[in-house]
Design brief:
Keywords: Cytoplasm, Methyltransferase, rRNA processing, S-adenosyl-L-methionine, Transferase
EC number: 2.1.1.198
Strand order of the largest sheet: 3-2-4-1-5
Shape: globular
Number of strands: 10
Number of helices: 12
CATH architecture of the largest domain: 3-Layer(aba) Sandwich
Oligomer: single chain
Structural class: alpha/beta
Number of domains: 3
Subcellular location: Cytoplasm
GO molecular function: rRNA (cytosine-2'-O-)-methyltransferase activity
Radius of gyration: 24 Å
Main location: cytoplasm
CATH superfamily of the largest domain: Tetrapyrrole methylase, N-terminal domain
Length: about 350
């Protein structure tokens, strides 16, 4: 029997093997190009382009790696890592499996949240002396929920050439499989792990919806926190909001479970999740009462009530934490007292 609120999408390609079929040497061999080069257009050039940057030729390259299936590692990505002078890894032990599978022997060093800022001056010096440095994360596209952003910013400021080798990304893959509106979407990485901070972050997003935000929301989440997170989503955004939980994408036990967020919260309260997880929440319905203007409600309440009482009244009416509503009510009250402030 099929559960209409969920679906399972098993993917049986071995994790350690790529397809035995020869890879196409260009996009045009794999599928019809959406934008075919015009031989008469001098601006069209299929020759690999090296971005302009530091005169000594240093290059920082952000390289995407598989999110589960090694067959998703592109030939260009492998060549870039093999030709680099140094590969910066989120965890060198994790990356060793991928590099060994492709016979890549380039020297690796760790780059993570705890050492990135301290390492930047020395890395920029290497780049300014013409070194080619590649940045990879444990899985997926660098900088998204992973280290590298501060180094990339420093390289831009120093005028160093920087490029990227695009590839797998868990958030985008989950979005395409979710059945939720693909655009606009908002990816927020990981929510705070502590319950109070997590609910506060979600409350701010709900308040943004009150002011007009309408987008599919995307997060990564740890398996042991998934049930609590979904319960918070149901409480703050409403149990009927459409949602999806994508698990182990591109791996053997890939699964995408879809349904109202309240239903998903109940499922995962009884069924412990495993693996890498992406959570998606659809946008509010057009007739959702939460679309009412928060500021209008607060201004009306502030006309006759104190800030404290107005916040309590409105928070109860629109299902937002009182602390979030109180902060906005206080701001509106200050604007009323000082309309030129």
């Amino acid at each position: 029997m099929t559960d209409s609120s969920s679906s399972s999408l098993p993917f049986h390609a071995p994790l350690q093997e790529a397809s035995s079929s020869p890879a196409p040497s260009s996009l045009s061999e794999a599928a019809p190009a959406r934008h075919a080069p015009d031989p008469d257009d001098p601006t069209e050039d299929e020759t690999p382009h090296t971005p302009a940057g530091h005169p000594d030729g240093g290059m920082l390259t952000l390289v995407s790696t598989p999110i589960g299936n090694l067959g998703d590692f592109s030939d260009r990505a492998a060549a870039t890592l093999a030709e680099a002078d140094l590969i910066l890894c989120e965890d060198t032990r994790t990356s060793a499996r991928l590099l060994t599978a492709r016979g890549i022997t380039t020297r690796t060093e760790p780059l993570h949240d705890h050492n990135e800022q301290q390492r930047i001056p020395a890395l920029i010096a290497l780049l300014e002396h013409g070194r080619r440095i590649a940045v990879i994360s444990d899985a997926g596209t660098p900088l998204l929920s992973d280290p590298g952003f501060r180094l990339a910013r420093a390289a831009i400021a120093a005028g160093i050439a920087m490029t990227a080798v695009p590839g797998p990304n868990a958030a985008i893959t989950a979005l395409t499989l979710s059945g939720l509106p693909p655009h606009p979407f908002m990816f927020s990485g990981f929510l705070p792990p502590r319950p109070a901070a997590r609910r506060e972050a979600l409350a701010r997003l709900r308040a943004a919806e009150q002011a007009g935000l309408s987008a599919t929301l995307i997060w990564h989440e740890a398996p042991h926190r998934l049930d609590e997170m979904l319960a918070d989503l149901a409480e703050i955004f409403g149990a009927d909001r459409p949602a999806a939980v994508a698990r182990e994408l591109t791996k053997r036990f890939e699964e995408v479970r879809r349904g109202p967020v309240g239903t998903l919260a109940a499922w995962y309260a009884d069924n412990r999740a495993r693996g890498e997880i992406t959570v998606l929440l659809g946008p509010p319905a057009e007739d959702d009462s939460g679309a009412d203007d928060l500021d209008d409600r607060l201004r009306a309440a502030l006309a006759t009530l104190s800030v404290k009482d107005a916040a309590s009244l409105v928070a109860g009416a629109i299902n937002l934490p009182r602390r979030t509503v109180y902060a906005r009510a206080l701001e509106l009250a200050r604007q009323t007292d000082d309309p030129h402030g």
